[in-house]
Amino acid sequence: MDITNALSPHNLSFILEGFGVTLRVAFFAIIFSFFIGCLVGTLRYTKIPVVSPALGILVELIRNLPLLLLIFFTRFALPEVGIKLGVEYSAIVALTVFEGAMISEIVRSGLNSIHKGQIEAARSSGLSYVQTLWHIVLPQGLRRMVPPMVSQFISLLKDTSLAIVISLPELMHQAKIVIGQSYSFVVPVLAVTAILYFAINYALSLVARRLENKWV
């Protein structure tokens, strides 16, 4: 085990560059999947004829596909129909589509968890369906969505490592290249990689706990 050479300034800088790519891809995928998931989950909850069932079929289809397949699809299949994306954009799109489907189920379940009596009381007091959804259902449902949603975002961040198959220069990709220099680099490089993943995921967990305590 060669810690000194494995964690030389050059190698550490190279690994941190990959960590930056991981954070950037995860950030955009989290933002986009959150808005898509909230929209789709809410539309499914409202049970709009044709729209809600169609979205339900689409969500179930995506949720039951391997994320790796979606990554390959965005990178290698889309160019065949004229949609060419860079490696980073391919990873963001694949993660957004997959996680958006997962988030939509969390949102739908959170909204369904609100007791129907509250909705009926709000409607009988003169609030429209949209007002009831916005002022009564969503605020309460959001509190219940925070823990599973953050868990899903943590999974998303870890899933960025799957993009190594399309040569995205993220954390695991860069770590693999450094390890390729010498077998004695395996333990220290993987230890640093694990620490970086743990640090950001633990930070997300703390933020979620704080939000949950604030809203309860």
TrEMBL record:
It is a multi-pass membrane protein. GO terms for cellular component: ATP-binding cassette (ABC) transporter complex. The chain crosses the membrane at residues 21-43, 55-77, 183-204. It is found in: Cell membrane. It holds the Pfam family BPD_transp_1. Keywords: Amino-acid transport, Cell membrane, Membrane, Transmembrane, Transmembrane helix, Transport. One of its GO terms (molecular function) is transmembrane transporter activity. Residues 19-208 form the ABC transmembrane type-1 domain. One of its GO terms (biological process) is amino acid transport. Belongs to the binding-protein-dependent transport system permease family. This is Amino acid ABC transporter permease. It comes from Paenibacillus cremeus.
